[in-house]
Amino acid sequence: MRSPLAFILFFVAFYSVFTLLHWFFWRGLVSSFRLPQRARWMPLVFFAVMYLFPIANHLSTAFAATLPVRGLAWIGYLWFAFLFYYLFVGGLFTAGAIAAEHLLRETAPRRPLFIAAVLLCLAVIVYGFFEASHLRVRRVTVTSPDLPEFVSTLRIVQVSDTHFTHLNGLRFAQKLTDLVKEEQPDLIVHTGDFLDRGFVDDEQIAALWREIPAPLGKYAVTGNHEFYNDISYTSAELEKAGFVLLRNRAEERAGTIVIAGVDDPIAFRFGEPDPNPTAVLSVIPREKFVLFLRHQPERDDSVKGLFDLQLSGHTHSGQMWPFSLFVSLIYPMRSGVYRQDDGSTIIVSSGAGTWGPPIRVLAPPEIVVIEVIRRIR
After folding, report:
1. Which DSSP string corresponds to 288-326?
2. Which end of the chain has the lower number of beta carbons within 10 A, N or C?
């Protein structure tokens, strides 16, 4: 399990930010509308409910399938996204107003600026909701001399970061699996974060994955959320859906491809072995085509030259701009195709689902279809 200290630090950090977001919006609201004392209780009650939402949502997962809990989750997560964007937009507007007052010696009209900021944030939320619901297909071609002579092409479909919950549930799974099925893959891989707290409709979702034909099978690796949500439970759910879970090991399929997978680095915090990608990959004969599944897109010179194709996820491409700018500082390979100087390729998927707010802004959800073509040596 995670240490109590880590949980406490996360809790304190989260609620510090959450408090700042509420305070900044409240300051803009009361300075723009000068609410009378007797009318202030209405937004304050709403603030109190939303302030307690993260705790209530965490404790109510046993009732995640019920309409009231789903409704509260939708409102709570969208409210969090709204506050996030208000901090950004409202902050810019406030800075502009202060600058105008100092430079032009005129008082900026606070109410129109506040209303404009709120409307712009709402527009971004609506846009983000629709962007998150429109899955796209990224197509990538990879050539390799390591495919056996009897294989001219190999089609791999990568799915990542589905985060199945009571918000991203059966309808999302149906849309996603239909899209995967249309691609007629030889091999399906899931590169981590299959589900999250509040996972519902598990039998129906598992059945959707099981009925997709894939001659070379379905493989998965753990993401950090597999451990956050109990590794034994999430492993069982992945296996129920027809995936072979590769935990720091490799497996060869039909003499065609070797698939290697390692646990997410968070594993050691939960008492699991620290993943060692070099140990897993170094024992594989290099004349084989090696597909390496790794949740986080880390630059790791220790595995250079030990695989042909690495598939990763985790970043969501930032999910909500401008947060993506900070993600790029942590993960230079944030999303896309990265050709390496040793001839290998690393593909980082922006993921199919969402974590937290069910929106995406300038980070469209995707599945990745990789066509591996045999190249004559």
Report:
1. S-EEEE-SS----GGGTTS-SEEEE--SGGGSBTTHHHH
2. C
Q: What is the mean pLDDT of the chain?
A: 93
Give the per-residue pLDDT at 3. Answer: 61
Q: C-alpha dihedral over 238, 263, 336, 84, to 10 degrees?
A: 80
pLDDT range class, residue 8, cuts 50, 70, 90: confident
CATH number of this structure's domain 137-374, picked from the four choices 3.10.310.50, 3.90.850.10, 3.60.21.10, 3.30.450.40? 3.60.21.10
- CA 18 to CA 54: how far, in whole Å? 10
Angle (deg, nearest 10), helices 41-59 and 4-33: 160
Alpha helices in 105-197 (DSSP H): 110-132, 170-182
Tens digits of residue pLDDT in 265-287: 999 999 999 999 999 999 999 88
DSSP class of residue 245 equals: E
Provide the residue type at 89 as one letter.
V
Q: How far apart are CA 275 and CA 266, in angstroms?
A: 9
Residue 24 and residue 91: Cα distance in Å, rounded?
Answer: 9
What CA–CA distance (Å, rounded) separates 332 from 241? 32
In three-state secondary structure terms, 153 is strand
Contacts with 160 (C-beta within 8 Å, 6 or more apart), sequence order: 190, 191, 192, 193, 295, 311, 312, 313, 314, 349, 351, 352
With tokens 């296996």, the residue in question is: 239
Whether pTM exceeds 0.90: yes
Residue 136, strand partner residues: 366
Helices and strands, counts by H and E, the chain: 10, 12
Please answer whether residues 315 and 331 qualify as being in contact, where contact means their C-beta atoms are separated by less than 8 angstroms.
yes
Q: Write down the residue that tokens 């609410």 correspond to.
A: 35
Number of other CB atoms surrounding residue 217 within 10 Å: 16
